[in-house]
Amino acid sequence: MDEQGFVEFLKRRFPFRRGLGIGDDASVVRIGGAFQLVSTDMLVEDVHFRLRDLSLADLAEKALAVNVSDIAAMGGRSLYFYLCLGFPAGLDLGDLRRFFVGLRRAAAKWDVDLAGGDFSRSPKLFIAVTIVGESARPVRRCGARPGDLVGLTGPTGESALGLRQLLAGKTRSPFIRVHRHPQPQCEKGRRLSRYASAMIDVSDGLLLDLTRILRASGAGAEIDYEKLPVSARFRGACRREGLAERDLVLAGGEDYQLLFTIAPILERRLRRAGMGYHVIGRVTGGQRLSVREKGRRLRIPDLGYDHFRGAEKP
Amino acid sequence: MDEQGFVEFLKRRFPFRRGLGIGDDASVVRIGGAFQLVSTDMLVEDVHFRLRDLSLADLAEKALAVNVSDIAAMGGRSLYFYLCLGFPAGLDLGDLRRFFVGLRRAAAKWDVDLAGGDFSRSPKLFIAVTIVGESARPVRRCGARPGDLVGLTGPTGESALGLRQLLAGKTRSPFIRVHRHPQPQCEKGRRLSRYASAMIDVSDGLLLDLTRILRASGAGAEIDYEKLPVSARFRGACRREGLAERDLVLAGGEDYQLLFTIAPILERRLRRAGMGYHVIGRVTGGQRLSVREKGRRLRIPDLGYDHFRGAEKP
Question: B39 and B87 share a domain?
Fold first, then answer.
């Protein structure tokens, strides 16, 4: 069973009577005249991170960032969150303070409040955050239509490159900084809620997250590799370090850019509104996903990270 | 720093602008004409449980039960929940199915829906649940007044006895059953929301949880040990197995009975309503907690379990 199969199993077994449940970046429940969005996401030591690679303050920031990103991916505004923290006995009170200093700074940055939580000793550090947000018009994964354009708010692959560099023993680089400090696209997410037909944040790799939109929407897509935002600096680093640029860009993960589909008529209006993004392809009627570069069809790399199949990372 | 100090530190550093945040069994936010309650609670392998002592189905049930109990402790109704599940590679797909079979059965029992979640590989099993409920009149910890009576919905110490038996190698007993299958007091909680001045569920030990009410309320209490519901069977098992009955009853933990305070005039009305509970003492004006048995003041045992001080359990 892969993640998709598991999600389908759960959706069948656990129908949600009050709104939209399992299967999107957040659940959606209509309460008090608006839609309440709730999402939950966790970081586990030695699965999502190694303690030597990130400070405790950075970890707290990252755990909150990935949740804020889930709300942004629904076109929502994050309001407040709950924290379950499993803390190893090997860490001390100073570490705990550093964690909460980072959490407070991150909470201020994204204007969200800590509303409650639970704390426990744990053999390994883990951080599970549940975040509450709201939106007047939540954007789901299932709204992509043939003819829509595929948009992306910024570059992918840079965080994955940073991770490769950390694993290779490097400690500083612009890409390591991107890996350590994910930037959820809050403002763009809220703006896109008025335009996008479907949206997701790129957490597990561009193509894997795109297939989630396509599967939910019953559609296919054609992506033009040349239209993807790949910087000369990124390209150069890949070449120097012998890394497959395309694999990182298409399947890297932890980018937290927003990937969306949009009707052409609305895309023209969005363009006039002056928001930065890239049109990287279009939605097709078939169920296939293809990536072309200079007219030539690329062999698609392993799509991205799946907890049900994947080797542990890092 | 003990747990209380840690909670105070967090309350100062993380003010919650939208309602009541850290410091009670659940947060309280007024939304759409009612109060939304949210609580989060987790179970961690080798801290809260050992895999050999509980089946995966029982673990799923327990993880949900402790959260349903938090909502009951606020006088609320549980509605739906979110699950973060960290799953060791040593467990297989069958184990995962068994977990979700147990979760589904528990969700049906307490009439709550799974609304979302996150799944990850993890070195040790952990289960973090965030639950959403509602109440027209949430009962907090801080409402106890001198002169109020102290009430308890049922016996304490039985789960702790069951745990001791498991650790001693026993596999079956009525108390092990209590330990494996906590029963949140949902209906009594909702009923008590109309009467109680303060309420908490007994998760970490009767006296420790009582001190939480007293500290939040700025009050003291006198408890009569003879008035505590202690069955002859429990007493006999403690005697036979050489366990200190009073320590288990007063500091055992994982009971999930409701501990509440109530004005005497309302207690008479509650009594007429026919709900089962025990008056075990009264709230006093001082800041002290004393326990008496036949007029003699008991030396209070170590109050209960505190993740900031305690040795790991089991």
Answer: yes
For residue B114, the model assigns a pLDDT of 97
- pLDDT for the residue A93: 87
Please answer yes or no on whether A115 and B16 come within 8 Å at the CB atom: yes
Cβ pairs A/B, distance under 8 A: 186
Q: Which of B247, B245, B252, B258 is nearest to B305 (CA)?
A: B252
Q: What is the ipTM of this complex?
A: 0.91
| DSSP secondary structure code for residue A309 in this structure | T
Question: For A129-182, how does the pLDDT look when each residue is reduced to its tens digit (9 = 90+)?
Answer: 999 999 999 999 999 999 999 999 999 999 999 999 999 999 999 999 999 999
Taking 60 as the threshold, does the pLDDT of residue A314 lie above it?
A: no
Taking the CA atoms of residue B22, residue B23, residue B24 and residue B30 in that order, the dihedral angle to the nearest 10 degrees is -40
Measuring CA to CA, which residue among B260, B256, B140 is closest to residue B192? B260
**Number of other CB atoms surrounding residue B168 within 10 Å:** 9
Q: What angle do CA A23, B69, A60 make, to 5 degrees?
A: 55
Q: Where are the alpha helices (DSSP H) in chain B?
A: 3-13, 56-73, 93-109, 158-167, 174-180, 186-192, 206-217, 232-241, 245-251, 264-273
Query: What percent of chain A stands above pLDDT 70?
Result: 95
Query: Looking at the complex, does the CB of residue B311 fall below 8 Å from at least one CB of chain A?
Result: no
The pLDDT tens digits of the residues spanning B34-57 come to 999 999 999 999 999 999 999 999
Across the interface, which of B27, B31, B128 has its CB nearest the CB of A128? B128
Summary mean pLDDT of chain B: 93
d(CA B266, CA B277): 14
Which one of B88, B113, B135 terminates a domain? B135
Of the candidates A17, A84, A107, the beta carbon closest to that of B128 is on A84
DSSP state, B45? B
Amino acid (one-letter) located at A80: Y
- Would you say residue A307 lies in a domain? no
Same domain, A160 and A284: yes
Interface of B with A in 100-119 (CB under 8 A): 100, 104, 107, 113-119
Please give the residue range of the domain that contains residue A47.
10-135
Q: What token pair was written down for B247?
A: 């320590």
Are A41 and A66 in contact by the 8 Å Cβ rule? The answer is: yes
Preceding amide of A264 cis, omega within 30: no
Residue B297, number of CB atoms within 10 A of its CB = 10
Asked if B153 and B286 sit in the same domain, the reply is yes
Helices within chain A (DSSP H only): 3-13, 56-73, 93-109, 158-167, 174-180, 186-192, 206-217, 232-241, 245-251, 264-273
Question: Both tokens of residue B230?
Answer: 């202690």
- d(Cα B57, Cα A181) in Å, to the nearest integer? 38
| CATH number reported for the structural domain that contains residue A115 in this entry | 3.30.1330.10
Q: Note whether B114 contacts A307, CB cutoff 8 Å.
A: no
Instruction: Report DSSP letters for A3-31, one per residue.
Output: HHHHHHHHHHHS--TTEE-TTSSSEEEEE
All residues of chain B having their beta carbon less than 8 Å from the beta carbon of residue A77 are none
Contact A122 B47 (CB under 8 A): yes
> Does residue A100 fall inside a structural domain?
yes
Are residues B171 and B124 both part of a single domain? no
Q: What residues of B are in contact with residue A307 (Cβ under 8 Å)? A: 119-121
